[in-house]
Every structure is written in C-alpha cells, then in structure tokens.
C-alpha cells in the first residue's frame, strides 16, 4: 500500500510538472475570457468584497456597534478579501470538470489542471483586490511591520486548503450534479461561521466549540494579525488549521488522482 | 530523442448500457440495492454491461503503421480512447512510450470567444506542447492552416472547416514519438486533405509508430504496414492492409443480403491469377468456381462481376455472362474465367461475384468477393484509361520564295 502511495505521488507530481504550462494556459484562457466578455474586466475582482464591506460597515457601525481593534471597514475588507478568494476558487472549481466535457472526454491530460486553473484565476483576482486593501491601510494609517514576512506562509496554507477542497468538490460534482447547488447553500452559511465580518470567537458555549473546528477562521485571523496588527498569528489554532489543510489536500488529491480514470466515462 | 512504442496487451474494456445515476436522489436507492445485491467482481459482466473491446492485442514498433478498420460499433473509437489514455482498460495493459501525438478531435480545446492565435497557444498546450515550442512553430502552423488573415478573428466566426484546419495544423506540428490518427483525414477541402495526408505520411515515414483509424480504406492501404479488422470488439483478422480490407468488404457484402438457398447455382470461390498489385491497364484473369445443381437456361440466370472503387464506393464496372454471350454450363461443378483489363486509376477495388436473376432483374445469390489493388501504370493518370494514341506530325513548311 505504501509502495502504491509512493508511485501515485511520484506520478502526480511528475504529471503536474509536465503539464504546468497547460495550467498557465488554462488560467490565462479564463482571465482573457473574463477580460473580453465583461465590460468591467478586472474591476470585478474588487466589486463584491468592496460592496460587502460597505454593507457590513453600515450594519456594524451604524445599526449596532461592533468592537474590533481596527477601523471596522478595514477589518471587514481584510476578512472579505481572503474569503472571496476561497469562495470564487471553489465556485469555479465545482463546475470546472462538468463545464469542460469535450476536453474531459476527448483529450488526455491530468484533470487536476481544471480545478487548479480555477484557483490560479481567483488568485489573480485576490492580488488585484489586495491593492484596495493596501489603499485602505494607507488611508487608515496602518503601518507594515516585519510580521508581513509571514504573509506568504498564511497564503500558502490557504491555497493548500482551497486546493484540497477544490479537488474534492470538482470530482463530486462530476458524479453528483447536486453538489453544485449544495455548495451555494453551504458557502453562504460557512461565511457567517467564519470570522469574515465579525469575530466568531466571541460566540461561546457548545456552538462556539463547533465553530472553532472551522479552519478558515484561524486563516483569516492570521491575515489580520500579520497585516493589521503587525503580529504573528496565534500559533495553536493556526498550526491546527495548517495541519488540517495539508490533510484535506493530501486526501483530496489522492482520491482525485485515483478516480481520474473514470471521469471520461462517468461525466 | 525517446523512441516511441505502442503495446496493447490483451486489453478488455467494459461499458454499461443505459444511464448512470448522477444525482444524489438516485444514489440512495442504488446504494440500498448494492447492499442487498452485491455487484459481481469487476472483471465479470453484470446485467447491462458489455465488452466494447474484448481481448485485443497488438504491438506497433517504430517504423510500423497499424491500420484499424471495422464497422461502426466494432470498438475502433474505444481502442483509440484507450490508446490516448482517456479510458483505462478493465483488464489487460495498454502502454505507450514517448510523447503521444493524437490527431483526434483536433479542435476540442478551442474556445469560441478566443482568437485563432490565442487558441493556437491553448490547443497546443492541451496537446502537450510548451509555449516556447508553439512560438517557434507558430508561423509554420499558420501557413499550413492557410488562415493567414483570420488569426486575429475569434474562432466563433470561423466555419467548421476553418477551425478543423487550424486544429489539424496545430496537431501536425507536434513532433510526436507516437502518432494516433482518427478520421481526421477527411478535414477541409480536397486540396487541404491532400496536404494533410502528405503531412501525415511524412510523419509516419519518419520512423515513429503510427496507429490509424479510418473509413477511407485507400488511405489505410497507402499509409499502413499492417492492419487489424475489428468485429464486435475483438480482432477478426490481422495481417496486411489489403487482406483486412478485403475481409472487411466481404463481411460488409454478406451481411447486406442473406444467401438465397433456393437458387440452383452457387459460386464457391473467386481467385485472381497472378500477383497483386495489378498494374493499371494490365489484363488479369479471375477464376470463379461454382456448382450448378440443375440445368438452368441462360435466359433465366447469369453470372456477373461488379467492381467497386473503395475510396469512393462507386461502382466502376459491372458485367455478366449474359452480356458477354457466354452460355451457362449444365449440371455439375464448373469454372468460369473472367479476364478484365484494369483500365482504372491506382487504388483498391472490391470485385464481387453474384448470380443474376435475369427474369426479376436482381441479384439472386451473392458469391465470393476479393479486393484488387491497382498500382500506377505507365501510360495514364486520371479516372479512366482512354487508350490514348498520340502522334507527332509537322505541317509541311510553306516555302516562301526568297527575294521575289
């Protein structure tokens, strides 16, 4: 079994290395298409998080006062931006296999390319949206500390987690088309179960214990720590989230790789 | 340069008729059913399953070109999908070494909203080319496709033929270690088809293994070193392209009309005297054997031959003993010699024999058939031999009186 695992992992890595240019090409295709097909082009990268930031700023500063250590709009945006990275990556991934039936049934290449390209596209949006975060930081006079050096680690953990989820979701939607609809429901609930627009840590009791299992909360809090507070993330929850991300990724990729050969028949 | 090789080692592939459950609503009943009636082990057939490919084995070495022929549903496409790794065998082993160039669905990766140029890069990447390789061959690809001015137009504005040509041009510049070709030989107009075929021929002659599936039997004959005939998922015949093609044509004609046992004349064999290929314009004798169970008047039955060009399916010639004023022999076995002059262009022809019912004006019994390969003769090129006679003459010089 270990031997099979080793050959599988070697095969997976070799294939991704061989087809990395295809990954870029597919991501480039989707970016090009969006740029051509939409009037707003890359402005869409800001649009949703900024709109959400405005809405929640009104709710949590005018309707009811929420006490966070930084100005609320930047607190919200620093949560909404990584959240929309997760949400849009997964939203595109879910339909990435079923939306490319001609390719899946007619040409061979590692199918991981589809969900991975979806993540890459969302990563570009994430980077574009980050310029607005930088502008907000300048506006509110929040300085950058050495802790920002830890930002790539936080990003890596999030990408690993998203990749694992993306592989599992795209594959399950191929077998059961319900997954696409269930995902939309889950992602909405999930956002409010994560410290995106308010700190869920303030919820105590049994519900709080359940919510503490959500790996996205420590990840988003880690972004806030290194960017807004100038400190390293709270080690214990962040390390747990990182470990969980790695497990999700490993399980996701292995299952995907082993089921891959059925895709053309089952799609 | 890695040397490509194709090994198809006793491969079986199972498919299921009917639909899969692909919503969760269907999963629950399916799981319940599975719990009570465990499915049979993977290699056995359950209710709705069937073998699309059954124990097919072949190897293609560098420099060889294998043609796969067969009727629709014989398993050709499944075999190709197994070769290109889109499907995985249920049993057996399918192994390809080196970079596989597949001239199958050459435009599958095209996105209608992207321009021709953007699609060249995308499709190239899908076929496994590096960006730098595509850039290096970009001009050749454009030139080959003949779409020069349209590369900055979105592909959704292209005609079917234009996208197929562009797709083929990309695939043709892949420089593969193994080449796999499906029906793409029928891409574009006549001129492009010729160019495409020449290109494939050049790649095939470069010494890499090639696998071709086509209904254009003449292309198979011209391109392949050997062939297999598939019937209902398994190999029915293996050998030279001409042999397989003749078997294919024979099964086609026998399946078309069931033998009519009521007629008193049966044809048992037809053989060609002399060796194939026949040179265009050559006279060749066909030796037909048969048995007459009763004395039949020549006014009722005749023995006929019909020659069909396989590349076009066109009947190029038909005649019979009635038209040649040959009277039928009496009861007993007989032999009939038919000498034909092959005044036809190079190609592969099916020669079918039959007993013709002169009263009802239809074929009474089909006899054996054979294929005849015709190679270029010395005297002509074109569709028919028009037996040219050419003579030079010089008009008598008109003497112009000088100095008058």
Give the structure's gist in a few sentences.
The complex is a heterodimer of chains A (267) and B (404). Chain A has 267 residues and is mostly helical.
Output the keywords.
heterodimer; A: 267 residues; mainly alpha; globular; B: 404 residues; alpha/beta; six-stranded mixed sheet; 8 helices; 17 strands; 25% helix; 32% strand; flat
Provide the helix percentage of chain A. over 70%
Helix/strand-derived category of chain B reads: alpha/beta
Largest sheet of chain A: none
Topology pattern of chain A, helix = H, strand = E: HHHHHHHHHHHH
Counting helices, strands and paired strands, the structural category of chain A is mainly alpha
Instruction: Detail the poorly predicted runs of chain A.
Output: none
What is the end-to-end distance of chain B? Answer: 81 Å
Calculate the mean pLDDT score of chain A and round it. Answer: 91
């Amino acid at each position: 079994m270990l031997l099979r695992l080793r050959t599988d992992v070697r095969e997976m890595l070799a294939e991704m290395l061989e087809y990395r240019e295809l990954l870029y090409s597919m991501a480039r295709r989707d970016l090009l298409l969006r740029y051509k097909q939409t009037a707003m082009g890359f402005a869409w990268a800001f649009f949703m998080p900024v709109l959400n930031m405005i809405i929640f700023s009104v709710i949590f500063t005018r309707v009811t006062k929420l006490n966070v250590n930084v100005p609320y709009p930047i607190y919200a945006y620093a949560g909404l931006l990584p959240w929309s990275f997760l949400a849009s990556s997964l939203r595109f991934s879910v339909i990435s296999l079923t939306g490319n039936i001609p390719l899946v049934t007619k040409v061979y290449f590692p199918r991981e390319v589809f969900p991975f390209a979806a993540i890459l596209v969302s990563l570009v949006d994430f980077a574009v949206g980050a310029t607005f975060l930088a502008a907000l930081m300048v506006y509110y006079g929040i300085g950058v500390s050495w802790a920002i050096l830890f930002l790539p680690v936080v990003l890596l953990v999030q990408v690993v987690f998203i990749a694992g989820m993306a592989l599992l979701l795209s594959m399950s939607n191929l077998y059961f088309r319900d997954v696409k609809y269930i995902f939309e429901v889950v992602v909405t609930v999930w956002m409010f179960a994560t410290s995106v627009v308010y700190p869920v840590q303030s919820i105590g009791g049994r519900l709080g214990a359940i919510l503490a299992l959500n790996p996205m909360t420590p990840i988003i809090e880690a972004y806030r720590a290194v960017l807004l507070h100038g400190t390293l993330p709270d080690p214990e929850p962040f390390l747990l989230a990182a470990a969980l991300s790695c497990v999700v990724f490993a399980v996701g990729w292995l299952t995907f790789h082993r089921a891959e050969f059925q895709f053309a028949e089952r799609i | 340069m890695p040397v490509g090789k194709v090994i198809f080692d006793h491969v079986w592939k199972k498919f299921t008729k009917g639909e899969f459950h692909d919503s969760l609503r269907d999963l629950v009943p399916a799981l319940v059913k599975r719990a009570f009636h465990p499915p049979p082990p993977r290699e056995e057939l359950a209710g709705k399953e069937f073998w699309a490919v059954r124990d097919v084995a072949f190897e293609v070495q560098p420099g060889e070109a294998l043609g796969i022929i067969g009727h629709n549903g014989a398993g050709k496409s499944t075999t190709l999908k197994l070769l290109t790794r889109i499907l995985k065998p249920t049993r057996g082993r399918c192994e390809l070494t080196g970079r596989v160039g597949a001239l199958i669905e050459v435009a599958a990766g095209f996105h209608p909203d992207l321009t021709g140029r953007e699609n060249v890069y995308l499709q190239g990447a899908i076929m496994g080319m590096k960006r730098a390789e595509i850039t290096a061959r970009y001009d050749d690809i454009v030139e080959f496709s003949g779409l020069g001015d349209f590369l900055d137009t979105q592909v959704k504005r292209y005609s079917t033929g234009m996208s197929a040509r562009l797709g083929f041009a990309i695939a043709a510049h892949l420089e593969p270690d193994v080449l796999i070709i499906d029906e793409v030989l029928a891409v574009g107009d006549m001129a492009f088809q010729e160019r495409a075929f020449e290109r494939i021929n050049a790649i095939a002659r470069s010494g890499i293994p090639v696998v071709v599936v086509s209904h254009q039997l003449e292309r198979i004959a011209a391109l392949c070193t050997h062939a297999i005939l598939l019937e209902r998922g398994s190999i029915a015949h293996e050998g030279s392209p001409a042999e397989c093609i003749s078997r294919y044509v024979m099964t086609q004609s026998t399946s078309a009309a069931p033998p009519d046992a009521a007629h008193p004349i049966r044809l048992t064999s037809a053989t060609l005297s002399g060796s194939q290929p026949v040179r265009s314009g050559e006279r060749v004798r066909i030796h037909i054997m048969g048995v007459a169970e009763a004395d039949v008047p020549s006014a009722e039955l005749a023995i006929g031959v019909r020659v069909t060009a396989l590349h076009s399916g066109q009947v190029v010639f038909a005649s019979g003993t009635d038209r040649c004023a040959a009277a039928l022999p009496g009861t007993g076995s007989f032999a009939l010699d038919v000498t034909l002059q092959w005044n036809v262009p190079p190609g592969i022809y099916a020669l079918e024999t039959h007993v013709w019912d002169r009263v009802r004006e239809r074929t009474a019994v089909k006899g054996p058939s054979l294929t005849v390969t015709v190679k270029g003769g010395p005297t002509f090129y074109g569709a028919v031999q028009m037996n040219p006679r050419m003579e030079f003459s010089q008009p008598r010089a008109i003497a112009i009186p000088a100095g008058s």
